[in-house]
Amino acid sequence: MEGRLYDAAVQGNKILLLDLLGEDALLLDRFITGRYPETPLHVASMLGHLEFVDEVLARKPELAKELDSHKSSPLHLASAKGYLQVAKSLLQVNPDMCLVCDIDGRNPLHIAAMKGHLDLLKELVHARPWAARALMDHGETILHACLRCNQLEVLKLLVERDSDPEFVNYKNQDGNTILHLSIAAKQIEAINLLISSTPIDMNCVNEDGYTALDLLSQNQRDATDKRIVESLGRMGVTHARDNPLSNSQLKAMRTKILLSPWDQSNAIPKSKKRKHGKRLVNSNRKGDWLERKRNTLMLVASLLAAMAFQAGVNPPSGVWQDNGSSDFSSTESNGKNHTAGLSVLADNDPLGYPEFLVYNTTGFLSSLSIILLLISGLPLRHRFFMWVLMVIMWVAVTAMALAYLAPDHSSSSVIKILGTGIMVWIGLMLILLLGHKIRIIIRLIKYLRKLVIGLMKPISTRAT
Fold first, then answer.
1. 44, 57 Cβ separation under 8 angstroms
2. Which of 88, 157, 221, 421 is the least buried, fewest Cβ under 10 Å from its Cβ?
3. SS3 of 327, please?
């Protein structure tokens, strides 16, 4: 039965699939519970049989998570072959498969980028944007993979969607950025794109102490070299060393950059593997943290905005239902008539109501500001922008708390409870502010330490 099902997957024969399932309803379950080198869904996804894939996913969506002997999912295979509709069906069932790496440490986004399947890559990035930040096993980003495979259009798409300096300037295990790689390969179009449209650090040095400009021949006999030097010269790029590389050294350096780490991955020290593994985890955690923070802020801001709106249109004590004299004494109502639709609290507490209105409006506008910023499409991917949004959220939450305290609570027991609540709230705010202050001081100390170490390195080099 399993053999006949494989044949049906190779042919994309949906009718034969239904006949086999009619004979044995548990046939697909065996590929989940058993040990097979690949499932029929792998075969159909690799061959692009969309109807067969849809039928299998409708009956057993769990098969989208199964990996073959190379740890590839059906989404890996569809991405490699460029089958857009098959990939869409797989993403609808389980978009988290974008994060799964095969035996070579590549997720479906890496594979689609290396193969140049632009439309399919757009779908994958839309499904799980932070998967593009994941590192491959040899410590390189998806941008390094694009340059090695000469996929300029894919590179352009990725840097347009995510121009974070940390992402663009990421170094591989040899300290080479994508600019080092593009110059070593003499990809003039990629070089012009990087220096004109991205925040690339053009004077960054690799582990051998060379900038991107050092990778060009000093005599500049090659016409391509001259064009590259002219482009870099206009951007103020400099050499890292006073002594230029000889032609033999230059050739060896270019070969090392182009071949490493793809052909030298087995020679990576374990310490470097651990180091880059930690950086990979940190990169994924950062993407997850930003996404979770955005979702949380949107949810809380929506709830606060709804609360503030409800309190604004229906304030405490409600509104007068008719026109006429107040039912209260003249002392309470100040001898004024009331008007239908106006707040009862405004007549009974003329000092507390304006205060309540100010706090409630502040909370309402702060919440709307957060919602507007999150849906505006601005690149709010940095932690700094998330921190700004969190500060606005603090303002909104505090304003709503003060709006609750604004009306007059004359009961002594209520006053005691409110007093205790205020003290707890103030204590909590002070603890949070102290924690953030300590965190900022620690980061500042680390930054100054790195700055001092960076300034001391050239001095120690000159001394030696």
1. no
2. 221
3. coil
182-195: per-residue pLDDT in tens? 888 778 888 888 88
Classified as helix, coil or strand, 337 is strand
Among the listed ranges 51-65, 263-277, 315-329, 333-347, which one has the minimum average pLDDT value?
A: 263-277
Q: What is the CA radius of gyration of the chain?
A: 31
Residue type at 195? I
Based on the number of CB atoms within 10 Å of its own CB, is 367 exposed (0-12), middle (13-18) or buried (19 or more)?
buried
Give the model's pLDDT for residue 47.
Answer: 94
Give residue-wise pLDDT tens across range 10-24. 998 999 989 888 888
- Residue 325 φ then ψ, to 5°: -80, 150
CA distance 45 to 78: 5
Return the residue matching tokens 């590179």. 155
Alpha carbon 3 to chain centroid distance?
Answer: 42
Q: Under a CB-based contact definition with an 8 Å cutoff, are residues 304 and 316 in contact?
A: no
CA–CA distances in Å: residue 112 to residues 117, 120, 133? 5, 7, 14
Query: 363 burial class (0-12, 13-18, 19+ CB within 10 angstroms)?
Result: buried
Q: And the tokens for 290?
A: 């930003």
Among 122, 126, 73, 127, smallest CA distance to 100 is for 73
| pTM score above 0.85 | no
For 130, other C-beta atoms within 10 Å of its C-beta total 20
* 337-338/324-325 β-pairing: antiparallel
Rounded to whole angstroms, the Cα distance separating 42 from 53 reads 9
Helix (H) or strand (E) holding 209: none
Residue 366: C-alpha distances to residues 297, 302, 372, 390, 425 (Å):
12, 11, 10, 11, 19
Please confirm whether the linkage preceding 261 is cis (ω < 30° from 0): yes
Distance, in Å, from the CA atom of 295 to the CA atom of 300, rounded to the nearest integer, reads: 9
